[in-house]
Amino acid sequence: MKLIIINGPNLNLLGKREPEVYGSTTFEDYFKQLQQQFPQVELEYFQSNIEGEIISKIQKVGFDYDGIILNAAAYTHTSVGIGDAVKAVTTPVVEVHISNTHKREEYRHVSYISPGAKGVILGFGLQSYDLAIQSFLG
Ligand code: DQA
Questions:
Q1: Could you tell me the keywords of this UniProt record (predicted)?
Q2: Global pTM value
């Protein structure tokens, strides 16, 4: 089972960024925990602050890997391009958010990713990623 976590803009700052919303753990530390927790999964991690790089990564892995776990961060609410990439590939995409975006500003209530996603997990903190991996293990 080969899965990739793709994180969008500002998620490289997890641990430092608005800890009251996103927690105080860095993604690198959390990723190590995930690798230990799911030794049977070949787990990869990619982060970019650049929309086109996220699209290129989705295209690159999206006909080959078993699953994509995508937190497009702020691009979730703006990017027709990432939304189209999710629809274009054959690998199932699970959309993930750390915070419950529906409890937050109205502009975060819209997702351009969800229409192409297999499912959406949000609001469980970093555990949202954990749950996304479990969803692929069935
Ligand atoms: C986020 C929610 C987005 O609205 C925000 O722009 C982010 C992170 C989340 O994981 O809760 O950067 O995707």
A1: Amino-acid biosynthesis, Aromatic amino acid biosynthesis, Lyase
A2: 0.97
